[in-house]
TrEMBL record:
NADP-dependent oxidoreductase domain mapped to chain residues: 96-410
Keyword annotations: Oxidoreductase
InterPro entries reported for this sequence: AKR, AKR_Detox_Biosynth, Aldo/ket_reductase_CS, NAD(P)_OxRdtase_dom_sf, NADP_OxRdtase_dom
Keyword Metal-binding belongs to the record: no
PANTHER family from the UniProt entry: NAD(P)-LINKED OXIDOREDUCTASE SUPERFAMILY PROTEIN (PTHR43364:SF4), NADH-SPECIFIC METHYLGLYOXAL REDUCTASE-RELATED (PTHR43364)
Protein name per its UniProtKB record: Aldo keto reductase
Amino acid sequence: MPPAWPKAHNRRASPTPHCDHTITARLIRSWQECRPVSDRGTPIRVALPLLARGIYIAPFFILYRPLELLAQVARTSPHVQSPHIHHTTMATTKLKIVFGAMTFGRPDVEQTRVHDLKDAAAILDVFQKHGHDEVDTARTYGNGSSEEYLGQLDLPKRGITLDTKLAPGSKPGGKAYTHRPEDLKPALLDSLKALNTDKVDLWYLHVPDRSVPYEDTLREVNNLYEQGYFKRLGISNYAAWEVAQITEICIRNNWKRPDVYQGVYNALHRAAEPELFPCLRHYGISFYEYNPLAGGLLTDRYERTTADKDVEPGSRFDPTKDQGANYRTRYWKDEWFDALDIVRPAVKAAGIKTTAEAALRWVVHHGVLDSKYGDAVIIGATSAAQLEDNLTSLEQGPLPDEVAKAFDDAWPIFKPVCKPYYRV
């Protein structure tokens, strides 16, 4: 059993000999090293926790976060290395970016497109080069092989935090999981074994299991949290009323409350805005957005007239696959292409490189996601070059008014046939 995550306390680090300053921080691990840094060219030495979170206060570093200072230390003191820092680049995006690893895995299963570990590592190199360090997967992705690939890449040594999810009915290795209390721990242990770790940062209930009373599920989830198997709790694809019900159950019993909700949201799928987002804001739950490019339909890849035979095998809209059927039910409608007929000319007239770039910039700057709530965009990729393009787009500024207006004018066209944000 892994050691339990310690409760976070704001406390002052104990003095370290020969250091000029100590740092008040939210500590995960409390041991320290005396490290050389500089302030405007003046060398000082700071007692720095090896891992810390939260804003700390010190005379020279009031506006920095500890992990940012670690990156600064790595730049100014090359001889000081931390096993938890793989790179020194800081993210420049307005929102947190999470890599979605659904495409990683064996070639003989659905969803996977990246089958070589070297290619997977190259994709993650690009991700980290842009300053990001959180990777999302699920027990069901690639029939369990997404987790296995990530486990072989040993992401914690790269400074990457891991998130995974448990869906009822998923059958990696022939195992059918539920959200019954007796199934939760074996399922989570299967994920941890595949990921080659003893804990994850964020563990989700992937989709609702309405066959099990939520109180029964959440009681065992809290037990697993107290045993230290995960730090943050996520829920995904639940209706707003279920989010409220789940959170109130946790509050009433003093159990671990949800920290993150993962759901579908993009420029032409805004069904979550009216009721889900007010619920999340009320309870202080972050929103991690998936499908920013609608599985590829918010790009220039597909037209209304694209024939089934011309769709790339294994892609999200491959009609021969279950995944393709699901995505076509969600997005492939005349109303979607009618909406794109408004957006694409505006994007071209504004001189924006691609519809995909415009869609990603919309999510960052014009939707309802907000960094102050800890919201994030989940972006996947099938190649390092594709990820480089998409991350570069996410780093760009707001859209011209006419392009933002085109998206706003297009959404009501698709809205009447838009599927719910939750799973029914």
